[in-house]
């Protein structure tokens, strides 16, 4: 299994002819506003998994789906039913004002799973925390909820291909019910703290590793570019790696375009 990390929570997981794009969102640095997963990778994608509706996770998902014809899996909270048709929130829409149709869309609720072309995807509970973003001397605050776009449809997913599994937690706070999930690979955010309240910080993420008991850990969604800042959601990944390895687990730090072979 080959795993490529494109910063934020964007990953490409490849095994044989299967190529799973996790959170194909947008780079939010104003000097490089582009797709996190390169466009030349889009046509080969077989599955798309979306953990929630924020731009850095969902912005390009419909375009990747159009280029590839891939199956699309998301949390049920990212969708609505209208005239007997299931719609997903518009990736580039404003708030909750626009919704679109996607072919091969499969929304899941917590505990539900689906098998698609040899890949089993299970929905696991996650909770996106409130955001507090400093902006031009002010702090933009939003709390996820049923009428808010922030964190919409938040869901973690356990993806199983053959005898290997990948658990991606999205932008989540720490959940005790993750105990004993035991994936081959765990992808989790570590960039909370320092005013960032919407994901786990390093300490919470280490607790999550202890609960989940994976073989390999890949930290994500930290030290990312955002607006005019080159480094946002700052975290000490060296400390995280040391403490994960002290638990007897493997840990890989993947920079932009970094690859892990599992």
UniProtKB/TrEMBL annotation:
Name by which UniProt lists this protein: MBL fold metallo-hydrolase
InterPro entries: Metallo-B-lactamas, RibonucZ/Hydroxyglut_hydro, UPF0173_UPF0282_UlaG_hydrolase
Occurrences of domain Metallo-beta-lactamase (ranges): 7-221
Source organism per UniProt: Congregibacter variabilis
């Amino acid at each position: 299994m080959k795993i490529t990390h494109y910063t934020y929570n964007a990953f490409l997981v490849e095994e044989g002819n299967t190529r799973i794009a996790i959170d194909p969102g947008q780079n939010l640095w104003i000097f490089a506003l582009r797709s996190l997963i390169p466009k030349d990778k889009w046509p080969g994608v077989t599955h798309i998994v979306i953990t929630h509706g924020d731009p850095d996770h969902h912005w390009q998902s419909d375009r990747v789906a159009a280029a590839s014809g891939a199956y699309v899996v998301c949390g049920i909270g990212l969708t609505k039913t209208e005239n007997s048709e299931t719609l997903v929130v518009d990736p580039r829409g404003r708030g909750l004002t626009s919704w679109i149709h996607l072919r091969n869309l499969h929304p899941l609720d917590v505990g539900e799973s689906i098998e698609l072309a040899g890949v089993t995807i299970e929905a696991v509970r996650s909770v996106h925390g409130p955001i507090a973003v400093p902006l031009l001397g002010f702090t933009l605050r939003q709390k996820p909820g049923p009428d808010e776009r922030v964190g919409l449809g938040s869901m973690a997913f356990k993806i199983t291909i053959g005898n290997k599994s990948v658990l991606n937690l999205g932008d989540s706070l720490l959940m005790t019910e993750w105990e004993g999930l035991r994936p081959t690979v765990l992808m989790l955010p570590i960039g909370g703290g320092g005013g960032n309240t919407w994901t786990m910080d390093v300490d919470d993420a280490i607790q999550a590793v202890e609960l989940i008991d994976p073989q390999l850990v890949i930290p994500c969604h930290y030290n990312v570019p955002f607006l005019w800042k080159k480094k946002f959601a700052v975290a000490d990944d060296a400390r995280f790696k040391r403490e994960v390895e002290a638990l007897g687990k493997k840990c890989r730090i993947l920079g932009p375009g970094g690859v892990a072979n599992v």
